[in-house]
Automatic annotation (TrEMBL):
CDD domains: GT_MraY. It catalyses: UDP-N-acetyl-alpha-D-muramoyl-L-alanyl-gamma-D-glutamyl-meso-2,6-diaminopimeloyl-D-alanyl-D-alanine + di-trans,octa-cis-undecaprenyl phosphate = di-trans,octa-cis-undecaprenyl diphospho-N-acetyl-alpha-D-muramoyl-L-alanyl-D-glutamyl-meso-2,6-diaminopimeloyl-D-alanyl-D-alanine + UMP. PANTHER family: PHOSPHO-N-ACETYLMURAMOYL-PENTAPEPTIDE-TRANSFERASE, PHOSPHO-N-ACETYLMURAMOYL-PENTAPEPTIDE-TRANSFERASE HOMOLOG. Pfam families: Glycos_transf_4. Pathway: Cell wall biogenesis; peptidoglycan biosynthesis. Signal peptide: none annotated. GO terms for molecular function: metal ion binding; phospho-N-acetylmuramoyl-pentapeptide-transferase activity; UDP-N-acetylmuramoyl-L-alanyl-D-glutamyl-meso-2,6-diaminopimelyl-D-alanyl-D-alanine:undecaprenyl-phosphate transferase activity. This is Phospho-N-acetylmuramoyl-pentapeptide-transferase. Catalyzes the initial step of the lipid cycle reactions in the biosynthesis of the cell wall peptidoglycan: transfers peptidoglycan precursor phospho-MurNAc-pentapeptide from UDP-MurNAc-pentapeptide onto the lipid carrier undecaprenyl phosphate, yielding undecaprenyl-pyrophosphoryl-MurNAc-pentapeptide, known as lipid I. It is found in: Cell membrane; Membrane.
Length: 368
């Protein structure tokens, strides 16, 4: 528990102190955000707002976890787990891709950075590295960092091992690439209003912190009653998830409407990659669809809008993603943001009830 508190405090301090320092640096370098011309006209006043705020978010999470890991090593001799390192690799690698995209935007002085092809290639490389290492690197717990299959909670309902190890690895790489692409794009689409992505991510990662902590308390071989999870080093995953939530809280202090800095793709792609990796590491890939329900709504609204327009040349929403639709309906930006936070909180609570209900059922306590 002390290690968790240390991680939270370090993360919060780094975010609260580092963000204004970054704002001053970005102002000095004239690295302001360029607003897309096809967005709401009211957003044009945000042009020039400092971006690259995701740099501080990533650094705060990394330093928060590292300080916690150092404390555990010095006091208990615990060595950092490969599961944690790989999850952080997913976050940092996707954040690096986002940084390149953000940097290209400010250098070219436009709202378009990396090409779709370039971003896809980058995501494919990093996601593939994560997928392969998560399957083959042995862990100190004896449980794999990932399992070659699709899981709702814990046990795969579809295993990739049906045709041998090599095929399982190939299918798992495809699966991980899908998850990384889906979640990074979903969080990126959510990052369209001041505080929307930061606030909803704070709520989502808090949910994952609760799930990972419960798994660590009921880890297979730990001797606790009830159903036990074969998850690799969930306590490390708990610390990372909580540090991510705290980093979003600290960043939100400067990102709430009117924002004095944006997280940019550096932050949104990193948070999306971290969310995807946590779903894989905790064996909850399909529960994540509920846990990150707001992200799903945002992404699906964009898919529906584009698909319907190509088929009929008509629009379902006034503008996509859906948060812009409500803006154009007359809602103030702050009202949209707060209500969307409430929606995400509802999804997280539903996911936690389902997760706990699954544990109760598997433990035989439902009718006992």
């Amino acid at each position: 528990m002390i290690a968790l508190i240390i991680g939270m405090l370090v993360t919060l301090v780094v975010t609260l102190v580092g963000t204004p320092m970054l704002i001053r640096l970005v102002h000095r370098l004239h690295y302001g955000q360029y607003i897309r011309q096809d967005g709401p006209k009211s957003h044009q006043v945000k042009r020039g707002t400092p971006t690259l705020g995701g740099v501080v978010i990533n650094l705060a999470i990394l330093l928060g976890w590292a300080s916690s890991a150092l404390y555990r090593y010095l006091h208990m001799g615990d060595v950092p787990s490969w599961s944690a390192v790989l999850v952080l690799f997913a976050m940092i690698s996707m954040g690096l891709l986002g940084f390149i995209d953000d940097f290209a935007k400010v250098r070219k002085k436009q709202s378009e950075g990396l090409t779709v092809r370039g971003k896809f290639i980058g995501q494919f490389i990093f996601a593939t590295i994560y997928a392969v290492l998560a399957l083959i690197i042995p862990t100190k717990s004896g449980f794999p960092s990932a399992q070659a299959g699709m899981s709702f909670i814990e046990r795969p309902f579809f295993s990739f091992e049906f045709a041998g190890r090599v095929v399982a690895i190939i299918l798992f790489v495809v699966w991980v690439n899908f998850l990384m692409t889906a979640w990074t794009n979903a969080v990126n689409l959510t990052d369209g209003l001041d505080g929307l992505a930061a606030g909803s991510s704070m709520i989502a990662f808090t949910g994952y912190g609760v799930i990972a902590f419960w798994e660590s308390y009921h880890l297979k071989g730990a001797g606790h009653s009830g159903y036990a999870y074969a998850v690799s080093d969930p306590l490390d995953l708990t610390i990372i998830a909580v540090c991510a939530a705290v980093a979003c809280i600290g960043f939100l202090w400067y990102n709430t409407n009117p924002a004095t800095i944006f997280m940019g793709d550096t932050g949104s792609l990193a948070l999306g990659g971290l969310f995807a990796a946590l779903s894989i590491a905790t064996h909850t890939e399909f529960l994540a669809v509920i846990l990150g329900g707001l992200y799903v709504i945002e992404a699906m609204s964009d898919v529906i809008q584009v698909g319907y327009f190509k088929a009929t040349h008509k629009r379902v929403f006034k503008m996509a993603p859906i948060h812009h639709h409500f803006e154009l309906c007359g809602w103030q930006e702050s009202k949209v943001v707060v209500r969307f936070w409430m929606i995400e909180l509802m999804f997280v609570l539903i996911a936690l009830v389902i997760f706990y209900g699954d544990w109760v059922t598997r433990s035989g306590l439902l009718f006992g």
